[in-house]
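Table S5 (text form). Sequence records supplied for joint modeling of the two-component complex.
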Amino acid sequence: MAWSAAQYAKFEDERTRPARDLLAQVPDLPAGPAFDLGCGPGNSTELILARFPGSLLTGIDSDEDMLSAARTRLPDLRFERGDLAAWTPPAGSALFFANAVFQWLPEHVTLFERLILALAPGGTLAVQMPDNLDEPTHLLMEETAEEPAFAPAFAGRTIRRRSLPSPATYVERLTSKEVRVDVWHTVYYHQLVNANAIVEWVKGTGLRPYLDALPTTQRAGYLAAYAEKIRKAYPAMKNGRVLLRFPRLFIVATRDR
Amino acid sequence: MAWSAAQYAKFEDERTRPARDLLAQVPDLPAGPAFDLGCGPGNSTELILARFPGSLLTGIDSDEDMLSAARTRLPDLRFERGDLAAWTPPAGSALFFANAVFQWLPEHVTLFERLILALAPGGTLAVQMPDNLDEPTHLLMEETAEEPAFAPAFAGRTIRRRSLPSPATYVERLTSKEVRVDVWHTVYYHQLVNANAIVEWVKGTGLRPYLDALPTTQRAGYLAAYAEKIRKAYPAMKNGRVLLRFPRLFIVATRDR
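The corresponding structure-token record, covering 514 residues in total, follows.
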């Protein structure tokens, strides 16, 4: 099951707000190439282009389905396939923007150090990562995987991502004489039409590795069991809607001019 | 001890960021008067004016020291003394902006309902409140007050503010057919030069009611005991600085056009 641009786009407004919030904290760019790392279907790339119209912007993603959607959306821009764990950042870059991608790479602090070294004076590394592993959405993926019906498929495998390091870790590792670092969390409370919309949301991201690990015949059963738990964990408000609590971590590291 | 505009201004950059973040989520204003409720020394008022230069903006605050600082800062603007618990919002208003003030009024949800009723179509109520009562900064104010040396001065008095209602409470109480509500938390991690800077920070706000409750002769002792606890709760990072974790709640309620 590849990344699904269509599934991902279902909650595009909600997913784009963090990218806008991150971009709002990026200072004006120096000259040099700019990169949208893990650009997905190009929604964040479009925002960066609107904020910095003259920039030499390239979108990088590892998934062809996403790249294809991005090229359709922004036909004049360059999109390249790349694996961020191995990607070599060009020296003298103005911007590395990474919205919701580095949480998949456990050793990302080391990658951030490398990216910062490739920044031009005045350049910025701007990162947003979901920090939601302790939310019911994600704890219940694990709980469902431990049920007798599904446990054999997961035996000996770790699907759960590693938790993010503490904010202090990023500040300590990335700050230097010429690099200032700002870190914050934002917890969004998305109003979704019902609990099933939460299931649809995570089907586009965090639930995928669990479904991938199961034999095709077990996927519907796992989804039904998970959805039942989600309905209990996210009770309806008076208007029938549910609130999806969603914490995200932001990091903005800027090299002095 | 009145509110001290000078003490408050010591951390103006850090205190202004939440106001900027709140303002970034306010949509363009319709015609009508705009108000900066609890305007303090006018830093948030200045931001609102920069974003909406033509607006009929008035700053409201209950403290003369703050109003005086605001008038010096923005001599062309109108600043009025007002008590928000009793203040009558003019009908047809374009904006009620309230940065870090309504946490002092426990019945603020009712006040928000009244403010929303006074909004012009397309108008916005935008609120930010510290939500930090469970942080060490505030728990240690209570712990120090309970020490034998200080407990008699606090006997029978409750200094601690009431905790904020849940995000769902604001969504449920304020949403209606013509009013959309967005709620989020942002947790800032302020990098301060040392633990004593944290004490200086809260001296301008949350610590004041505790110091006010003590006889003058006990204030230095209370401050020293509190500062000692803060030093243990906020250990220095490698560069000697400390991280002050500071959660804040944001609410933006907009009436349909």
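Note: Chain A has eleven helices and seven strands.
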